[in-house]
Inverse folding.
């Protein structure tokens, strides 16, 4: 490196270090906003309107929704991606709820995009579901979702724990909502055949659109699994969705008990918006008053996901303090600041977030009895994840190599080892959560009902294990070293089997 280049690099490094410490919170952790599309903000608007909660910040919400609109009138799932008809429909409805006139230029452009994309008939399952709660789509066009699913034992092929943690925590409250089939008022009133969005239907005279291909088509395509799920849905519909089934009351009670057990002390559910939003909604439908402490804490947790600035008010899907702090500690140690007291304080903050309690859905199937993971958020004791835990172990060892023998690192490594799936890879939150045939179920959106092993998380674990094994001179449990070596061999075999023809790997988590 020539002298000029070295000087420039050092100047840049000093500026980055100064910026980083300027962003550190008073208790020495870091947290940045988690960006997302407008879906969560739109659903927040719909929910608060339906429940009659205060929307005095309507102009801030409207500003954000308009700010995030694309030139072609659409809203996308990610920057520079094509417009998405479901996201655009939800944003359109939210803007109308907030009082934006139908002839506003933004809505005219949005309307044209949605119609070009096939109209409301083409939206995803969850968008359909939200529209049904306002009478904009008939409940008959929504798949049956019997609450009795909560009663299925963990040993059965299909139960709540065969779903990914995010699908599980989102679905259970939705089972309650599906049972009640509420119809909420819109600015034009309440109706089971509301015409509030008729202008974005290609054919508003026929809203009972099928959510699955005809059974004859599935039979001809020999898609036995989707045929079975679709046939079962039709049979359940003939039985009235089992609403009068003797076990329904018990099932609803079991759903509520699960929600109450899984609510964090501060009010969160699973650390992200969909289960928070759905759980508050379900509890209200089950009779909890708006001023009940569970509801108040849940709404407070949702509000903690909000950001307001010159661009408007928006809802983030989650918060990332543990992840952000781990990355910052790691980077600052690499920059030579291992001895800085601010880095030391951040490390202590991380250690205090390790989850050692009895909670955790991972315990249902994991052979691992040892707790010791970290979650992504401030409050999420039920769902530590492998990725965060591996990154934090790396950060702790960079700060102090001698902490390898500590209980904190040992417990974390044992927890990660217990989360290794039979195929040698690692998922994010659960052990062996790989029943991919569940994606054939009628209410599956974007093939996201499972949490199978993935190359990116497995790679992260191998990075962590490699870092550990490079410090063999530091005294630590020899038996644990052997377990890490054996686990690494299996993980490498998994990665080699998953390599794509072009030489790379598919990254499920976008990193």
């Amino acid at each position: 490196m020539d002298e000029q280049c070295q000087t420039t690099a050092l100047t840049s490094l000093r500026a980055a270090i100064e910026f980083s410490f300027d962003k550190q919170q008073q208790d020495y952790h870091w947290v940045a906003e988690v960006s997302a599309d407008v879906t969560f903000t739109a659903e927040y608007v719909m929910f608060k309107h339906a429940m009659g909660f205060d929307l005095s910040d309507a102009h801030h919400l409207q500003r954000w929704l308009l700010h995030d609109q694309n030139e072609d009138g659409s809203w996308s799932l990610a920057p520079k991606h094509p417009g998405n008809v479901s996201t655009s429909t939800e944003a359109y409805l939210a803007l109308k709820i907030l009082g934006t006139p139908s002839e506003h230029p933004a809505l005219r452009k949005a309307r044209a995009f949605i119609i070009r994309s096939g109209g409301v008939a083409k939206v995803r399952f969850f968008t359909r579901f939200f529209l049904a709660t306002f009478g904009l789509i008939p409940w008959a066009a929504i798949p049956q979702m019997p609450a009795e699913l909560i009663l299925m034992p963990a040993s059965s092929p299909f139960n709540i724990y065969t779903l990914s943690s995010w699908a599980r925590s989102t679905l259970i409250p939705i089972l309650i909502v599906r049972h009640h089939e509420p119809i909420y008022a819109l600015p034009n009133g309440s109706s089971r055949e509301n015409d509030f969005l008729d202008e974005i239907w290609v054919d508003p005279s026929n809203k009972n659109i099928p959510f699955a291909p005809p059974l004859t088509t599935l039979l001809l395509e020999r898609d036995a699994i989707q045929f079975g799920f679709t046939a079962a849905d039709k049979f359940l519909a003939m039985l009235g969705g089992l609403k009068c089934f003797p076990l329904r009351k018990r099932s609803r009670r079991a759903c509520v008990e699960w929600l109450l057990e899984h609510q964090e002390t501060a009010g969160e559910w699973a650390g992200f918006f969909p289960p928070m939003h759905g759980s508050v909604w379900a509890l209200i439908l089950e009779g909890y008053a708006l001023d009940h402490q569970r509801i108040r804490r849940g709404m407070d947790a949702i509000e903690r996901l909000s950001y307001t600035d010159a661009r408007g008010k928006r809802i983030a899907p989650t918060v990332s303090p543990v992840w952000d702090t781990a990355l910052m500690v790691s980077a600052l140690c690499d920059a030579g600041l291992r001895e800085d007291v601010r880095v030391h304080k951040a490390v202590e903050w991380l250690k205090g977030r390790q989850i050692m309690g009895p909670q955790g859905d991972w315990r249902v199937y994991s052979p691992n009895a040892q707790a010791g993971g970290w979650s992504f958020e401030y409050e999420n004791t039920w769902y530590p994840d492998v990725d965060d835990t591996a990154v934090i172990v790396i950060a702790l060892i960079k700060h102090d190599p001698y902490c390898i023998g500590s209980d904190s690192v040992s417990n974390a490594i044992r927890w990660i080892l217990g989360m290794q799936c039979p195929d040698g890879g690692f998922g994010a939150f659960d052990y062996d959560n790989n029943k991919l045939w569940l994606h054939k179920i009628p209410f599956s959106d974007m093939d996201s009902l499972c949490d199978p092993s993935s190359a990116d998380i497995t790679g992260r674990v191998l990075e962590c294990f490699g870092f550990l094994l490079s410090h063999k001179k530091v005294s630590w449990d020899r038996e644990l070293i052997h377990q890490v070596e054996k686990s690494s061999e299996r993980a490498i075999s998994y990665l080699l089997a998953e390599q794509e023809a072009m030489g790379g790997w598919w990254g499920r988590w976008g990193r």
The CA atoms of residues 80 and 307 lie 22 Å apart. The two ends are 29 Å apart (CA to CA). The longest helix spans residues 478-498. The longest strand covers residues 306-309.
